[in-house]
Amino acid sequence: MSETVLEVSALHKAFRTVHAVDNVSFTLAAGGSLGIVGESGSGKTTTARIIVGLEHPDSGQVQIHNRASTSTKRSIRTDRLRRAREVQMVFQDPYLSLDPRITVGAALREPLALHFPKTDRPARVAELLDQVGLGEHLANSLPRQLSGGQRQRVAIARALAVEPAVLVLDEAVAALDVSVQAQILNLLADIRDRTNISYLFITHDLGVVRCVTDDVIVMRRGKIVESGPTTQVLANPQHPYTNLLMDSIPRPGWDPRRLSNSPSR
Amino acid sequence: MDPLNTLDIQNLRLRLPNTARPVLAGINLTIRARETVALVGESGSGKTLTARSVLRLLPPGAETEGTVRVNGEDVLAMAPDQLRRLRAGTAAMIFQDPRAAINPLRRVGDFLTEGVRLGGGIRAAEATARAERMLTAVGLTSAALRQYPGELSGGMLQRVMIAAALMGDPKLLLADEPTTALDVTTQAEVVALLGDVRDRFGTGLLFVTHDLGLAAAISDRVYVMYAGLIAETGPADELFAHPRHPYTAALLNSTPRLDSTNKRLAAIDGQPPGLQVQLSGCPFAARCLYATDLCTEQTPTQLPVANNTKHLVACHHTDKWESKVVHV
What we know:
The complex is a heterodimer of chains A (265) and B (328).
Chain A: E1 4-15, E2 18-29, E3 33-37, H1 44-52, E4 59-64, E5 67-68, H2 77-86, E6 87-90, H3 104-115, H4 121-131, H5 148-160, E7 166-170, H6 178-194, E8 198-203, H7 206-212, E9 215-220, E10 223-229, H8 230-235, H9 240-247, H10 256-259
Parallel strand pairs in A: 3-8, 3-9, 6-7, 7-8
Antiparallel strand pairs in A: 1-2, 1-4, 4-5, 9-10
Helix pairs in contact in A: 3-4
Chain B: E1 5-15, E2 24-32, E3 36-40, H1 47-53, E4 63-70, E5 73-74, H2 80-90, E6 91-94, H3 108-119, H4 124-137, H5 154-166, E7 172-176, H6 184-201, E8 204-209, H7 212-218, E9 221-226, E10 229-235, H8 236-241, H9 246-254, H10 293-297, E11 303-305, E12 308-313
Parallel strand pairs in B: 3-8, 3-9, 6-7, 7-8
Antiparallel strand pairs in B: 1-2, 1-4, 4-5, 9-10, 10-12, 11-12
Helix pairs in contact in B: 3-4, 3-5, 4-5, 5-6
């Protein structure tokens, strides 16, 4: 068993009367890949945002390298910077996550200037672009000159700039066309092979989960309903909700009418 | 022209201002009554414009050639009042995002009855009774008539949109990515409902989607589009099991599937050509593993696969490669 990089214990978060995250605990190994699956309202995105530090939990802890980095109070600047160096996030929509007026190069230099003031920035920017399969010449481009797939590569490069231990990908391939989605999924697999980075993959797509994760958690209404090694959960789902999710995936011979009468929904 | 076709698109070409190539470069597509036809393609392939051209909902400055016949009448040549009748009754469209397609300040009941009341000849009470029947048909109750869109979930709202589409007693339903914005379990419900509606009202259904798995699961026939052309068309199960166009095969192979053991996906290198790129020959040639000089020189014509006139493919080399689908 390899070293644990991320440990989440007994997280709770409520928005007024809605219990968005209800007693969620899990661990992520260094170099591992964990998927969180669920539908809208399952609490998967709120969990991710708490881990990154964009939300504060009502109770519970997020530990990275055995160090608690979430206080229930608002974190101070050094805490915030340390967290950003350890955990980075890639968002769903590459059309919204990049500043339209900032070039690709500048977007990559910004986290470098903040976290590693002494680094040779032009060289590192070139290295990052190469790592995500983009040419160095794109450093001077604005986001609007790039395709959706290229933008998502830039967002990944920006997240990798600080060499985080954990990369949180919140539906990071959901907005892409399948042919481009496959390129990005393969790229992410390559990066994990080369570095010791860990992935937390938030998605609604069980096909994506099968491709890129070692372990999986199924969430529903804020709670974990099933968890385990991905191959095992997908081959032999125990919870009726996991079964319903799997049966909902269209395939030849699929009969959605039978499904909508199933008792587990 | 086959008089049995509810929708008959022949050689449709569409050009937009300030573009280097036509967005639609000669589309042929037919749908019969009670038939579900899926139109599959990636962003920019022209699938949405093909669907919208059936209602002549075209962007400003669009120039069209060819014919689009609904129930035998050419939509592209219709007079304004004819076109209004078509949109209010004969053909109805269901859009991807139900929240963007409904006025949030009006009640669901007003939204449902507006079209038929403006269409004339029907009294308010009659229209409301019809709205109630349609809401029941889509699995909602008449209580929804008094509700505002904001009070309904995305799945319920998409049911309202389907009810609205049925109000004018259409012969043809056009559904443009109707489940893309929905959760998977809700998607299954809406797809089941569309199937019910088709059986019950005998409509033809054009289902536009980027999801080849969904297309294969729900449709009788599939059209695969790439850069404004139909790359391949055929019966859903055949096309899914034995794709004869390299693009169809590549799409299938790049989809992360549950019933496979491959961790690595067969991605298609590059990206679809933009509208500012002049195309010569086969539009897929630049990304195709089997492309030769012939492919960049000559646009392939649609030919039957093994003399099966239902399965057509536009590829110069379709008999020279073995269709390798990595699933199962």
